[in-house]
């Protein structure tokens, strides 16, 4: 790779080549997985380029295309699957500086891809009392472009479903990796070409997202003597049409007691919990519902004293993938699995799976609206022993009808539905004919004959280049 020549082509652009910083910017939260940690530890790019606008993105892509240099886009690097890691080296394209909020109107906001999600909400709240429909639990640090290209859903999914559901992204502007890069406007069905494609087939340079009414959400934690008590409560709460919530998260004991350090004082031994974010105008009715359902309110931010609230993270930073992060900080042997408990049998499946791995898998659910029904994902904590045992646990989930979105794989297909996404593949042929964008992440591109049922892990040959 002629990196020196590329530097000359890109004169005037912001470039970083200090190897320590380049390596740091070549990483994401891949180390959540002991498997990815082993495979990707050494991966690094050659340089980081930080364009300030779309014209600079086009300059970088045209130059890299000419020289055959791979480009891996990056928001703020909070993804979990090694998504933003440059397996073939080359350029990290940091979109962090393209972070302006350029237009806010009823129901819509237009932003740069590098805008931090919490900053977008701050702007839309101040402008017109609106907020984004969904956000990951990495709200305070993640970029909107990274969320769309790498995330799936999160806080707010109990009302609006996932990111790839129709209507949850309105418009994307995407630049192609060609001799003369084009800027395309994608809407409607075309959005599926690039949402959750890990930046393998285009660089998002502008985002238009839908907005909803903003509230000062109230954090409440409800305690239960059994995990199934918390799970049934979560399901019943999600089905309450009149109560407005934004987060419903049942978590089995002893996870809260062991890992939620700042909240520990609120929990009794053996108590499982359900974390909730509820709109202020729904709070009284929610408390009445909780009383009737037999839940014990162990923490209510609306009535807690300033002393009690001091230093507590918000509920959403105990939920989604933050549960794993908090566990990992205390016990580095913890990892996790992401699964779906399909409707309508989800409660029976939750109960069955919860009983299968005592002391090894700890149940953590996130209730969501999924195709109009209330059901849940599991982000279960796993006490890791060996890769073989992890695979065995995955097979048991799947044999019981719970698909696993495997966070121990860096490819789109293995981390998703284990099949080719023909729409994304076709768009890659059109928008990145040389296969230079985030190489190694789309199996369908690297090896069209790959057998997803083989049970083997796909190993990208080009991985050697950057490690
Ligand atoms: C503690 C923790 C909690 C999390 N909680 C959630 C959660 O609740 N829900 C959820 O969905 N995810 C969650 N995640 C994963 C991740 O934080 C989110 O998906 C986040 O939105 C990613 O944003 P980012 O800016 O960090 O993206 P990055 O990690 O920088 O990038 C993610 C992917 O998008 C690509 N990309 C980035 N910018 C662009 C662009 N402009 N154009 C094209 N491709 C691009 C990258 O190449 C990469 O493949 C969590 C992760 C952690 C560590």
Describe this structure in words.
By secondary structure, the protein is α+β, with helices and mostly antiparallel strands. The chain has 17 helices and 19 strands. The strands form 4 sheets. Strands 5, 6, 7, 8, 9 and 10 form a 6-stranded antiparallel β-sheet that branches. Strands 15, 16, 17, 18 and 19 form a 5-stranded antiparallel β-sheet that branches. Strands 1-2-4-3 form a 4-stranded mixed β-sheet, sandwiched between helices. Strand 17 and strand 18 form a beta hairpin. It is globular, with a radius of gyration of 22 Å. The protein starts with a helix and ends in a 21-residue tail after the last helix. The mean pLDDT is 96. Flavin-adenine dinucleotide (FAD) binds next to strand 3, helix 6, strand 10 and helix 12. Pfam families: FAD_binding_4. InterPro entries: FAD-bd_PCMH (IPR016166), FAD-bd_PCMH-like_sf (IPR036318), FAD-bd_PCMH_sub2 (IPR016169), FAD-linked_Oxase-like_C (IPR016164), Oxid_FAD_bind_N (IPR006094). Keywords: FAD, Flavoprotein.
Main beta sheet, described?
A: 6 strands, antiparallel
Structural class: alpha+beta
Radius of gyration: 22 Å
Q: What kind of assembly state do the chains in view correspond to?
A: single chain
Q: β content, as a range?
A: 15-25%
Point out poorly predicted stretches: none
Based on CA inertia axes, which overall geometry fits? globular
Q: Classify the helix fraction into a percent range.
A: 25-40%
Q: Ions, cofactors, ligands: which are bound?
A: flavin-adenine dinucleotide
Please tally the β strands and state the result.
19
State mean pLDDT (0 to 100 scale). 96
Intertermini distance: 15 Å
Total helices: the number is 17
Protein name: FAD-binding oxidoreductase
Keywords: FAD, Flavoprotein
InterPro entries: FAD-bd_PCMH, FAD-bd_PCMH-like_sf, FAD-bd_PCMH_sub2, FAD-linked_Oxase-like_C, Oxid_FAD_bind_N
